[in-house]
TrEMBL record:
It is found in: Nucleus. Residues 4-121 form the Rubisco LSMT substrate-binding domain. One of its GO terms (cellular component) is nucleus. This is N-lysine methyltransferase SETD6. GO terms for biological process: methylation. One of its GO terms (molecular function) is methyltransferase activity. Its main location: nucleus. SUPFAM superfamilies: RuBisCo LSMT C-terminal, substrate-binding domain. Pfam families: Rubis-subs-bind. Residues 43-53 have a biased composition (Acidic residues). Residues 38-59 are annotated as: Disordered. It comes from the Eukaryota.
Length: 129
């Protein structure tokens, strides 16, 4: 369901791997009976037209059912815990010109990437609270 990387790709405005996330949330939030039916049918035969045309925008994420929101929330917390530092530490380093200048170019770029990733994850936390 998740693809080779085993991760979902989030952007500022929407989920970029929306089909994978949508299917994963549906399956993980199913009752045992619903899952058995899903397996017997080899997935969903025909999704409704509404589901096919919808995107997982930030607005749509905030309207997910409570179990799906909780699952996403907990997943984001686990992802954030895997980082060595928190968002504030990254922001403080970016704002400390002297410390930032001591970093190599590669370390500066990595800092910007981590900071951006964490900001997106924190935004997702707010959307699914």
């Amino acid at each position: 369901m998740v693809g080779e990387e085993g991760a979902f790709v989030l952007g500022w405005d929407e989920v970029l791997t929306e089909e994978e996330l949508s299917v994963t949330l549906k399956v993980l939030c199913m009752s045992e009976e619903e899952f058995k039916e899903y397996k017997e049918q080899d997935g969903w035969e025909d999704d409704s037209e509404e589901e096919e045309n919808s995107t997982l925008s930030n607005e749509a994420l905030s309207r997910l059912k409570t179990p799906c929101k909780k699952l996403l929330y907990d997943s984001v917390l686990l992802t954030l815990e895997s980082y060595g530092t928190d968002l504030k530490a990254e922001q403080d380093l970016l704002n400390d010109k002297e410390a930032y200048e001591k970093l190599s170019r590669r370390e500066q770029q990595a800092l910007h990437v981590r900071y951006g990733q964490k900001r997106i994850l924190h935004q997702l936390l707010e959307l699914v609270q």
